[in-house]
Amino acid sequence: MKCPSCGKSLNPRAVRCTGCGTRLIRPSDKLARKMTAGRGLSLACGGLLVWLAVFLFFNDAMLFGTITAVAGAALLFLGKTMNRR
Ligand SMILES: [Zn+2]
């Protein structure tokens, strides 16, 4: 691979450019970080929706509660299955 700022040829496993010191970000790293962020977000939203569903059930909003519970469970499931290789 080549350094994006100075063009020096580098070891593909290098973390920093040996010529100019630029920190190198590989596409796979970016993707992994994005996946982790997405997973955390869907888990957080799923958890929030499940709590909202419980709240709705206690307020006799069964239909909205059911929809919210299903959506929350789907998000939690999505977050748990994500990041598995
Ligand atoms: Zn460089």
From TrEMBL:
<keyword id="KW-1133">Transmembrane helix</keyword>
<keyword id="KW-0812">Transmembrane</keyword>
<feature type="transmembrane region" description="Helical">
    <location>
        <begin position="61"/>
        <end position="79"/>
    </location>
</feature>
<protein>
    <submittedName>
        <fullName>Zinc-ribbon domain-containing protein</fullName>
    </submittedName>
</protein>
<feature type="transmembrane region" description="Helical">
    <location>
        <begin position="36"/>
        <end position="55"/>
    </location>
</feature>
<keyword id="KW-0472">Membrane</keyword>
